[in-house]
Specification:
heterotrimer, A alpha/beta (324), B alpha/beta (275), C alpha+beta (337), B: 275 residues, alpha/beta, Rossmann fold, 6-stranded antiparallel beta sheet, 7 helices, globular, C: 337 residues, alpha+beta, 8-stranded mixed beta sheet, 30% helix
Chain lengths: 324, 275, 337
């Protein structure tokens, strides 16, 4: 796939369709490509696309759209939902982006490889469904399905929803992905159990802001948590209440706009399953207002910013909780 | 347990003087009515209002003042706005002194001095000017060039007119940016005023003001024939600890709070331009 | 040198923990390891390293500094420092042990940071040689020997035994107090050290050179035209700084507790836009400048002030946790190339 991508990128640069290419640059190891901008065919020699190009490039387009000329971007299915959502919010300019959609069968999670016993990774090759890892301590073979990122295991859609051209065959929306199973499991807990679960998770937070800064829905120019005049700007949680609230406030703020791309959980250095907070909101909105997928369609009105006569009444809370 | 410099002492504001529409000068002593600590001209103190914040301020009074310390503070942010709302008798916290200060007992000794200040930039230089005036025998002549946006924005105007202008060994040249009714002095920006005045090349220069004023004045001084090694300035950056640890005021391998805030321009030339 | 059978490891930990808190790496149940206080049943993790560094023991993420009571125009200041209790950290890797030296030269320099100093005085460091260094390890580039870690006591783990050697009086005293330890040959760890060395020789980052860096390269590196491309995709989060064992910047803030004001400090990051924000403006307005500051500090400014010692220990945490996989190794290789 990488060869086809480089070829198309070179052609689009050469014929003047685009002036730059947003993709991934090869890293030090087989698993650490970095998002990068390429402005010439020569520069593309460092272009890489493999099972570890997990980062969602959509957010970079907010800044790149402010530059002169058109940008070529490669979007995987989940990234294309984010792009649409940014279009809906007028944060990116469709006219300034040339999108090549990529068919995707999931990305490999480096941490899962390590869990599977791969330390001292020297090289990684994928052979069909098998990932072969050459390490300092011998060769390890694992099934790709076992080391896919958590969000890929419950992939909601393999469909690129916005593109100018596609590489590979476009996939389908997977309604039975089971992405709400874990949320349902949390809902089934008693409030005390649930509180304990989240305390255990959120107490590990180091407030590094990786989740916020990678999130395509977190596109405020100046975050309220960074604004000294907000009175709540903070770099560390002063107490457990704040520790909880940072993530919960963030989840509220992206509710209805979160496309469930899963970047927050992917980048968390403490491996906190932050996406579960967002999924809880998505599940609730689906149940209260009918199915809605942010980013599926550019310009769509999210339930929380739309009003219809059959919207549920606030009392739904009591009805829903009545059984408990 | 060892005394901790990061834990401040309590100071009392005993006098507040409105210098200009946005600059007030605060007189501060300790709870015992005495000076909280001794300092070298150009050194700073961390003042704070608990719950609002802490900030680094230049000590504007001269060390020769044995009774109190003064801080001339321009209202421009959160903490300074709060300080401007204070009344006499208000307590604040204070810790210091911090920074290197001007080399009044070494490099500046015996020298003819030229002070160039713009706006609130007079605050740190006032400490040196009054120190030098009080120890005249150790220094040569003093030339002060001071300018501000308007006549109303000249800090310490009363002291300048009543004391500096009447001091025999001191020459004072004032300027304001734009013409103003009732002002018969010089009008124009400081850099060009300095070039017009053609100060004596043998003087050691101490300059402080807005970054843009410093930049153009230095260019002018160089044009006149001054060397970077005879010009000192004092800097201001965001600071938190004031003791060279928290990393905020780090420029190159220097910490402005500890290695500065006073630098000679030939020293600054060896640092990244991040100030 | 002393030794104890690995079968008696629990007994050994219990003996140390009897008189003071013992911290050691344990599995965190989340694909990594973390330092935790030892309690009955805790299992020592042999993971290459903990997800967070060991600097927390001496420079915690959040720490109270002083509190104030404000009553009308009056202020009272309270010293909130507490006398620390003795504690032992077991299983610190050679890289993290070296990071304490780097923090020491900042926090113990005059004027001493008494918060940090107290913790340093009360903490005893037991290091563990790295039997299984991993591909992100590059401590040797900074002169650190993973086969011979520093600390108050150095430890080696063989298939059957834990070997211990005291390097300081404090370490000596602890070992002497542990009666279950047996004497071992001075050469008992030699095979383990040799085995580690043979792996260190094969590490992919073994050849990483620091030659292009240091205090004398300041202006040349600062003005390099490579910073723009390197920082282009940096998100400006603080992950690298927060997992870094040598990042030492902090912020001081006031917190209204409802019945007074608590002044605390917390880790800060030069990657953040408000790090240098003043009332009059910002001296680093772009992410490139902020990105450059972090690496210049480790590779140029710090060595310039500390006899050429670099502000990085090659632990590789930033390589594992950066959301966009940018890290100091890529920076060094790019600037050099």
């Amino acid at each position: 796939m990488q060869e086809v991508m480089v070829k198309r990128a070179s052609e689009l640069l050469a014929d003047g369709t685009v002036v730059r290419v947003l993709g991934w640059k090869n890293g030090e190891f087989a698993y650490d490509p970095t998002p990068a901008v390429f402005d010439s065919a020569d520069a593309l020699s460092a272009f890489v696309y493999n099972d570890f190009c997990a980062s969602n490039l959509s957010k970079y387009l907010i800044d790149l759209c402010k530059k002169d000329g058109k940008t070529l971007v490669f979007l995987k299915p989940c990234d294309s939902y984010s792009f649409n959502q940014l279009l809906t919010e007028h944060r990116v300019d469709r006219e300034k982006v040339y999108i090549i959609g990529l068919a995707c069968d999931g990305k490999v999670d480096e941490a899962k490889l390590r869990e599977a016993g791969c330390e001292g990774i020297l090289g990684i090759t994928t052979d069909g469904d098998t990932v072969k890892v050459d390490t300092l301590y011998g060769e390890v073979s694992v099934a790709k399905a076992d080391v896919l990122g958590e969000r890929c295991v419950t992939c909601k859609s393999r469909q690129v929803v916005v593109y100018d051209e596609l590489i590979g065959e476009n996939g389908e929306v997977n309604a039975d992905c089971g992405r709400f199973d874990q949320v349902a499991a949390l809902e089934a807990m008693t409030p005390d159990e649930r509180y304990e679960f989240w305390r255990g998770e959120l107490s590990r937070c180091i407030r590094c802001n990786a989740c916020r800064n990678i999130c395509p829905a977190c596109s405020c120019v100046n975050c309220v948590f960074d604004n000294p005049k907000s009175g709540i700007s903070q770099k560390a949680a002063a107490d457990t209440f704040e520790e909880n609230m940072f993530h919960i406030i963030r989840a509220f703020h992206v509710a209805g706009r979160c496309t469930d791309c899963g970047e927050c959980s992917r980048v968390c250095p403490q491996h906190i399953p932050l996406h579960l907070l967002n999924r809880k909101f998505i599940k609730d909105m689906n149940e209260c207002y009918g199915e809605y997928q942010a980013g599926a369609e550019a310009g769509s009105r999210a339930p929380l910013v739309n009003y219809t006569l059959d919207d549920c009444e606030p009392s739904v809370v009591y009805e829903r909780e009545a059984g408990k | 347990m060892r005394e901790e410099t990061l834990i401040p002492k309590v100071g009392v504001v005993t006098d507040i003087r409105q210098d200009t529409p946005d600059v007030k000068t605060f007189r501060v002593v300790g709870l015992d009515g005495k000076k909280v600590f001794e300092h070298i001209p150009g050194q700073c103190a961390m003042l704070s209002v608990p719950g609002v914040g802490e900030g680094m301020f230049s000590i504007t009074s001269s060390p020769t003042n044995t009774e109190f310390m003064e801080f001339s503070i321009k209202k421009c942010g959160c903490l300074t706005s709060w300080l401007h709302m204070m009344e006499v008798g208000q307590q604040i916290t204070i810790r210091g002194p911090y920074g290197n200060g001007f080399p009044v007992e070494s490099a500046l000794k015996g020298k003819d001095l030229l002070f160039i200040a713009g706006g609130i930039g007079l605050a740190p230089l006032r400490s040196v000017i009054n120190y030098v005036r009080d120890k005249k025998e150790n220094y040569g002549s003093v030339h002060i060039i001071y300018g501000s946006r308007s006549a109303d924005d000249l800090v310490d105007y009363k002291e300048i007119i009543d004391e500096w202008c009447t001091d025999a060994g001191v020459k004072v040249d004032l300027t304001i940016d734009r013409p103003q009714e009732g002002w018969d002095g010089h009008v124009g920006f400081i850099p060009s005023f300095v070039e017009e005045l053609k100060p004596d090349l043998s003087r050691t220069v101490l300059i402080c003001g807005p970054p843009i004023m410093i930049k153009f004045t230095l260019d002018g001084l160089k044009k006149l024939g001054f060397q970077e090694s005879q010009v000192y300035t004092t800097m201001e950056l965001r600071m938190k600890c004031a003791i060279g640890k928290c990393g905020r005021c780090n420029i190159g391998n220097k910490y402005v709070c500890k290695d500065g805030p006073v630098f000679r321009f030939d020293q600054l030339a060896e640092l990244p331009d991040e100030y | 040198m002393k030794k104890i059978s690995l079968n008696k490891l629990d007994e050994f930990f219990a003996a140390i923990a009897a008189s003071q808190t013992l911290y050691l790496p344990v599995e965190d149940g989340r694909k990594g390891a973390k330092f935790d206080a030892w309690k009955e049943g805790a299992v020592y993790s042999t993971a290459a390293n903990t997800s967070r560094s060991a600097k927390d023991f001496f420079f915690p993420q959040v720490e109270d500094m002083a509190s104030f009571k404000v009553d009308g125009k009056e202020i009272e200041v309270y010293d909130t420092r507490k006398e620390s209790e003795d504690f032992v950290v077991f299983g610190v890797r050679a890289c993290d042990a070296k990071s304490f030296d780097i923090l020491d030269s900042v926090y113990l320099a005059d004027p001493v940071d008494s918060y940090y100093e107290t913790r340093r005085q009360h903490g005893l460091i037991m290091t563990m040689a790295c039997n299984k260094p991993t591909e992100t390890c590059f401590c040797s580039a900074f002169g650190i020997d993973a086969a011979n870690p520093a600390g108050d006591i150095s430890c080696w783990m063989t298939d059957s035994e834990l070997l211990l050697e005291a390097n300081t009086e404090k370490g000596e005293a602890l070992l002497n107090a542990l009666s279950m330890l047996e004497d071992a040959d001075a050469s008992a760890a030699d095979d383990t050290k040799a085995a580690i060395q043979s792996i260190l020789d094969k590490l992919p980052l073994k050849g990483l050179s620091t030659e292009s860096f240091g205090g004398d390269k300041l202006m040349e590196l600062f003005h390099s035209d490579k910073w723009n491309a390197l920082s282009e995709s940096c998100l400006g989060c603080g992950t690298c700084t927060f997992v870094c064992p040598t990042c030492q910047c902090y912020d001081i803030r006031d917190y209204d507790t409802g019945h007074g004001v608590m002044r605390y400090r917390c880790w800060d990051s030069c990657m953040y836009s408000d790090f240098t924000l003043c009332a009059h403006g910002n001296t680093r307005t772009t992410q490139m400048q902020r990105f450059r500051q972090r690496f210049m500090h480790k590779l140029v400014y710090y060595p310039g002030n500390n006899n050429g010692v670099f502000g990085c220990v090659g632990c590789g945490r930033c390589m594992r946790s950066c959301p966009i996989s940018m890290n100091i190794v890529k920076v060094m290789k790019t600037l050099e190339g």
